[in-house]
Amino acid sequence: MLLHDTALIYGRYARQSLRSRFALLFGVLTPLLYLLFFGPLLTGLPLGARGSSWQVLVPGLLLQLGLFGALFAGFAVIMENGQGVVERMRVTPVSRLALLLGRVLRDATVFVFQAVLLVLAALVMGLRAPLTGILIGFAFVALLTLSLASLSYALGMRVRTPQEFGPLINMVSMPSMLLSGLMLPMSLAPRWLDVLSHFVPFRYLVDAVRDAYVGRYTSPHMLYGVLVAVGFAALSVIVGTRVFRTAGA
Amino acid sequence: MAAVISAAGLARTFRTKHGPVAAVRGIDLTVAEGEILGLLGPNGAGKTTTLRMLTTLLAPTGGTAAIAGHDLASDPVGVREACGYVAQSGGVDAQITVREELVTQGRMYRLTRTRASERAEELADGLGLTGLLGRKTGTLSGGQRRRLDIAMALTHRPRVLFLDEPTIGLDPGSRADLWSLVRRLRDEHGTTVFLTTHYLDEADALCDRLVVVDRGVVAAEGTPSALKLRHGGSTDASLQDAFLAISARQTPKDAQHAAP
């Protein structure tokens, strides 16, 4: 039943994404601009990391894509609440977990698709990385977007208006990006900033993807990255499902 | 006749920044199979909250209720399978076609893809939506939209249909159509219909029995003519007179309980 329901909800929202192809491509624009106009600035700089500057920057841009994109997923559920769509679905026997999973799996698909476009563009710009590492990077994008979209839907179900939602998301997304070393590795940071960044979960993900891009698949960074990503995803899905079960208070 | 809906002491208190607010304080009611019941009451009386509890959308903070023998608390899935619900806002996506919404709805009730398509055709047929299956729901008129909302709720042939202010914003012709649709559902399928309304002519013309709620409790109940006789003075009194008498009578008594 869970599989059936999840596939059903996934299909509904995947068709919705296919109907707005422009939005599908638009999400990749910001990281693409960073790639084109920020990436070349790094090529000659000592980044204190293995591999080329592209192997440092592209993992960061992939997670930035997830961070800024998936965190805003909840906007859609605010619109749907206004139309009564969520309530109408909640009156049917459809699984509550599926109501969330169908949506977030669609989001993960969209962001992995955008991540593929971004990596293709990066290859043209000069990125060279092992295929396995690139695939591992996509897996992290999928896990991250699954987690963030779950939390974003949970928030969207709670706050009810875009005016409350937007500022809350911005309050989370900007510091998260800066404190996790998405743009430049935290190994360049002074001690206090490096310590602070370890309290931001995305730090572990970006370190892991950077290791993957230089072929280090068994490093401690990779282990911590996987643990944090999987744990964060599990926690987020539990929170999100709880909200779909009890929403309306 | 057997009761298809029964509620005892059903209550819901919301926690707000300004302390607890008791939206529903303890509703007792029973509805017989095949009955058309109207739930009346002033704004904020707790009508929608009651409906949302009976349809499993909102957990009660007190009391019990059962729909078609399924207990609200212990068997919510059984309740969902037995009832259909049309909210005030409807609940279809404006960008999606009528057919796709109906088919997806059928599949949420676990019909196979083929069966869901057939059911969509049947419902469109029965509710005058046949020519509209390919249209996006956002392009429908108010009356067409309402019929689609009801079609969505009838997908699984529920024994009980809950309608929250079903004719709000409809023109007189569409209202009359909706009334005859409700009567037809009851006459042909034995469906029990539980609706809320602010239109007293609607309550008078359509409902077998009325329950008037005020400040979260049942203030009066009976057939439209019994309410007119009891609270309006005679069966020739208007339901408006009876309704106002009931609401006014409630005010002093309940004011004492109003403070949280």
Description:
The complex is a heterodimer of chains A (249) and B (260). By secondary structure, chain A is mainly α. Helices cover 78% and strands 0% of the residues of chain A. In chain A, helix 5 runs antiparallel to helix 8 (96-125), helix 5 (53-70) packs parallel to helix 9 (131-159) and helix 5 (53-70) packs across helix 12 (201-213). In chain B, the strands form two sheets. A six-stranded mixed β-sheet of chain B has the order 6-7-8-3-9-10, sandwiched between helices. In chain B, strands 2-1-4-5 form a four-stranded antiparallel β-sheet, covered by helices on one side. Chain B is of the alpha/beta class and 260 residues long. In chain B, helix 3 (98-108) crosses helix 4 (113-126) and helix 8 crosses helix 9. In chain B, 48% of the residues are buried. Classes of the chains: A mainly alpha (249), B alpha/beta (260).
- Report the CATH superfamily of chain B: P-loop containing nucleotide triphosphate hydrolases
Beta-strand percent range of chain A: under 5%
The 3D shape of chain A can be described as: globular
Helix and strand sequence of chain B? EEEHEEHEHHHEHEHEEHH
Query: SSE order of chain A in H/E notation?
Result: HHHHHHHHHHHHH
> What's the β-strand tally of chain B?
10
* SS content category of chain A: mainly alpha
Question: Which two chains form the greatest contact, residue counts included?
Answer: A-B, 25 and 33 residues
